Amino acid sequence: QVQLVESGGGLVQPGGSLRLSCAASGSIFSINVMGWYRQAPGKQRELVSAITSGGSTNYANSVKGRFTISRDNAKNTVYLQMNSLKPEDTAVYYCNAVVRVTTMPGKYDYWGQGTQVTVSS
Questions:
Q1: Sequence-ordered list of residues with C-beta below 8 angstroms from that of 3, at least 6 positions apart, any chain
Q2: Which neighbouring-strand residues pair with 50?
Q3: pLDDT 10s digits, 42-66
Q4: Is the N end or the C end of the chain the one with fewer CB atoms within 10 Å?
Q5: Contact 48, 93 (CB under 8 A)
Q6: What is the 3-state secondary structure (H, E, C) of 45-86?
Q7: Cβ–Cβ contacts within 10 Å for residue 94, how many?
Q8: Is 74 left (phi over 0), alpha (psi -120 to 50) or beta?
């Protein structure tokens, strides 16, 4: 019913930047929270950053001051600008959205397919 499509991952050197995008489409009535999670090999998936429809944000301590989340509500799209990247930022990054759909009551979690970010020299 709802699809999340991510783009923008890749290979970057330490200190470099990447911008991730995630566009939601489908039977969307409204989107409450959109966010980014990441999962490194052998580790649990962790929240990187999230943003509400009103623009309130939160960040993992490990990315504060380096990553910036933003959102275009008209396009149902969330962005993650990642600066000063470190090797420990290497992971698969997943987009998440909490969505009210048009076809049934309630809110539902949806996930993107993931995009690889590799920080290496």
A1: 24, 25, 26, 110
A2: 35, 58
A3: 999 999 999 999 999 999 999 999 9
A4: C
A5: yes
A6: CEEEEEEECCCCEEECCCCCCCEEEEEEHHHCEEEEEECCCC
A7: 20
A8: alpha
**Dihedrals φ, ψ of 57, to 5°?**
-125, 160
The predicted structure's pLDDT at residue 20:
98
Is the distance from CB of 48 to CB of 67 less than 8 angstroms? yes
Answer whether 95's CB lies under 8 Å from 101's CB: no
Q: How many CB atoms lie within 10 A of CB 68?
A: 16
Q: What angle do CA 115, 89, 20 make, to 5 degrees?
A: 40
């489908």: which residue's tokens? 26
